[in-house]
Amino acid sequence: MAKKSVASLQKGGGKEFTKVIISARSEKTGAYTFKESMVHNDKVKEAIASATK
Known about the structure:
Layout: H1 2-11, E1 17-25, E2 32-40, H2 44-51
Antiparallel strand pairs: 1-2
């Protein structure tokens, strides 16, 4: 399924987006969780800053 989503992003305006993966450690269990999102290139720094707060 990942191949299909990546291929469709290459055709149109997909080059304007970046996949952001943010890891966070759970205080309860100590396990790491990952949050993935597609963000416009202009908003990458804002997305990372808001996730690290």
